[in-house]
Cation-transporting P-type ATPase N-terminal domain-containing protein
Amino acid sequence: MSKPPLGSANTEYSIDVNSFRDGKLSIEQQIEIYVHDLFNVQDNKDISLDEVLAGIRYVLDFRIKGGRQDHLEPELMKRLCEGLLLCTGITNGHFLRKTTTEDADTAFFLFGEFLEEVEEFRVAVGEKPAFDLQQSLKIHHRCQPSSTNEQKQAAIGMIHLLTTLFPQFHDWRDLVKEREQGDMEVLLSSELAKDIEKKEVAKMPQSSAPLLPPPSLYFDKSVKKLLKMFPNTDPDKGLPSDVVPLLREQFGQNKLPEPPKPSALKMIWTQLTDFMVIILIIACIVEAAEQEFNSMAVLLVVIVLNTVIGFTQEWKASKTLEALMHLSTPQATVIRDGVQQTFSAADVVPGDLVVLDEGEGIPADLRLIEVSQFEAEESILTGESVPVAKTTDAIKAKVRKIPLGDCKGNAFMSTVVAKGRAKGIAVRTGEQTEIGKISSAINASSKTKVKTPIQRKLSRLGKYLVLIAIVLCVLVVVIGIAWKKEARAMVNVGLSLAVSVIPEGLVAVTTVTMALGVRRMAASQCVVRTLPAVETLGSVTVVCSDKTGTLTEGKMRTTQLWTSDNSLYNFTNGASLDPKEGSISVEPSELRKRMIHIHRSTKEEIERTPTPTTAADYAAMKPHVIPRNDDNHIKANSNMLYSILVASLCNNSSIRQSEENNEWISVGDPTEVALLAAANQAGLNREYLLETLGLKKIFERAFDSERKLMSSVYTLKGQEDGEFVLCKGAPEELLSNCSHYAVASADNKSMNQEFLTENITTSPVDDVFATHVSDENSAMAQKGLRVLGFAIKKVRSTGKTSPEDEPAWKEDNLVFLGLVGLIDPPKKGVSDSVAICQKAGVDVIMITGDHVETATAIATQLGIIRPNVPGMSRAILGRELDLLSDDAIVELNPFPNVFARVSPDNKLKIVTALQKRGELVAMTGDGVNDAPAIKQADVGVAMGMAGTEITKQAADIVLVNDNFSTIVAAVEEGRHVFDNILKFIVYLLSCNGAEIFLMLICTAADIETPLTVMMILWANIIADIPPAMALGVEPQEVGLMSRPPRNPKAGVLNRVTWSVIGLQALLMAALTIAAYTIAIYVEHYPVADARSLAFACLTTIQLLHGLLSRTISRSVFETGIFGNKWMIGALVLSYGFMLMGIYCPGLNDWLELTPVSGWSWIKIVVCAVVHAICVETGKLLLRYFGGSI
């Protein structure tokens, strides 16, 4: 049962609540639970909204009231405020009669009482715009004559609270819907209101801190109201200087947060302190100390190359934020103490009166109070290159934030004055400005930006290799000393083993492989800005995608028209603007009356629907295409013709055919373009209606988000004493302004002057018809359609007043015509791409600013939502997301597939939560406000066509064609890149591992070491880098997108790949040892000749192994020996260098090699054949036992 409202009599409790005092943390914990329940209550069968609100009531009454706890955690209070506001506006009933539910009233009372009791709750409410409170509190539903006495008391109490405690809410009319203000005015002057004021109810303690207007754009405030909110600001003299220090102390300096500056020395130091590089440097120092300058020179070249490559990549990446460094404006022209002065923009404070002139930069976010032909260039924020004309008018909006391009009364920091002059009050400065918020978010994400998966994995692999190198050095020295060998010689051997461990070409080959992947992706309309992002794409487990323009065409089209006679018209022209393409088909009302799937909500509607008494001629009633005459015009019933008339003329867009290329070009709002295209398809284009029939526009009442309607008034030539009022808008608002609905003509007619002079046959709107309209509206919305209503009336004006005040032209007593459904259709191929992603184990999440019904319908069409699959049918609002703490978002189970009506902050929260869940996230976006989330994501994806420049700079990847299918292709290419990286890592480590086993076994067996340090370095350079680079361009294997994504926490190598590396390395070492020991102990080769044989044998096997490594588990004979021409070229090149090192005079001396005999080459070929047979057998066993790589 609802708690008595604000202003009711005191309630007596049966226990003495003053006998105990509860702890603050305990109270906060309880409220946190209830706030979470407020969010989950619709999906939670174990708890009802009434129980949640009763729990909050208990905490308030017994643990907070009476001053027990007047301060609670601010963020918690913000979420509680949002949670209660979600509930205060719950209503039931139909379009014409709505009332608040009992739960909504309980939430309303709780909202007011928390407002009285908790300081931080008051702060949270004070930060909300008046229009938000109007839409959420729905005070207008509680002040009507039919409202209960409790509801009226609550409405009076809430108005009293908000208007007396917050200067920005001083005008109660801002808090009540315009149409209901008359009822509220009557209520406020009633005896009930006077009694409440006498009892001094709804009073709350005043905050000790000065109440300064919170940073906001105040686009919904008139200049007069704005000046009342800034009482210290005079519209002519500006701020007095004595209040500036207080404001600066409160809001800080007007500076953008500077991004961290890149340090070249720090980057070089980072490269040189890499574990693998440190080992090479140590080896280089030791070689120099022992005067082995040849070996030292080779090592130095390797170190320098690795450092240069790594530094170059990091330096390029550090430039991502550099554009923001140049966005702040250094000077500002401000009026203070009545004097116009110019000083540093950093000294501007909220409340300053700023003067703007042509060509100047704007120093802060301003609310304009005077303009003179003023236009601002805002492309940095909106992506629109056309300057925006500004006004001082207030903008009424249903949401807290409207698109920046729609903020006609604001000017934004770091944008530029393109034309004219203006004066404005600074309402946001520094980090609170639009550009400041973006800068702060990007800086924060850049500081916490983790390494990409390949960077983390290679770093971890490097540490393992360094550990192995240290262990081997120590082991070799200990073994050598045990064999009574010279310590200096053993140290050299240890160093040679350490050098063998480090794959010197790993960094270079990885970089080249990713660069080649970048080139391949560019051919698929995908531009990669950071190399590691190529591989990271292959690791992603979640793709968060915007809807409009990425998953859908980004173009609205008319798809259905339902008229009040219950006929349904379907338009099949797709997104084409050509009026001759496509067709219009109709499901007649007689057929729809007999359709059992047509939903009828009420018994009255069912009884009203006539039961056919004769056999139906279904052939005549079946859906059919409406034919066109020679002039491309259609004949249809009156309701259809009037609806097309509204679509064409209550419309400011235009469509024309280009004379240059005959393409159809549209100008105007996308929704109006779609309506005009539908009218053109019916042959009733605007030129025909205006020029041929003689209709003439004489007045227009523009659309605004408060009325949700647009109307145009037309006269007909020869009938100047009568007018047509054509109206379109939100179905709920439109129907509430209609007194009748149109009854269709019995026969089909043509649109001509005779038709327009006929009277419209009507019937009164009643509850049954209103319910029918509501059902059809819901049916369209469930299909993802944006629904608008059409209405008309014929009137005769008085001509005694101005057009704005003409009573006959007002939007009332209209005749309802029907509903039109529009959609932004999914792009071709996107549903297939989503299916490919899901098959590959990659979840697709839709994040959109669109309505949840539309988003859910589109997501269902694309397969993102699957109602019959557990865990794949959840959609939530961004506003609901605001209720949850970061930890609660992480714990959502199942995690939603669709997020609708989201803000940029919501996107950042979603990405962060997914990362905390262990997911690798790819995030798409186009606007500058998307930049923080794109920067935070593991892979940020910007739109190339619709994306702003800052968004592209923050992204890792840019889609040239703005198509989701391109992302899927990029994911596939990312997997391809990692596949190739894995192949050459396995190849490099198996080759270097062979050198380790070779040296270690010979040392342990007291055999003369078969390779010198120079031989090892030369082998690593010629046998590692060219074949490894060839593996980097290996063609894609079959079934790449049928594999699940790799575990982000797993290393580059798993147990199977480590085993493959170890066994292959041991095999190569064993074959080389066999050839080497036979040469020394059986054939008695000199040590130098035996070493050359060992070098040639090992290098030949390694080069052959490069060919075998083109696939880790499949046979090379399946992929084709010549399938990778780059590999053939690399083998020829490397083999040529090997032969040069053996036979070229001078070079072989430097490398400590001698010529190899023909008999030795026969033994080398035998070893190579044995190796190939063993490796292919191992692959066969790997496939047989299903080893996962």
In short: Residues 978 and 1006 are 41 Å apart (CA to CA). Confidence is low (pLDDT under 50) at residues 1-22, 201-211, 320-329. The longest strand covers residues 365-377.
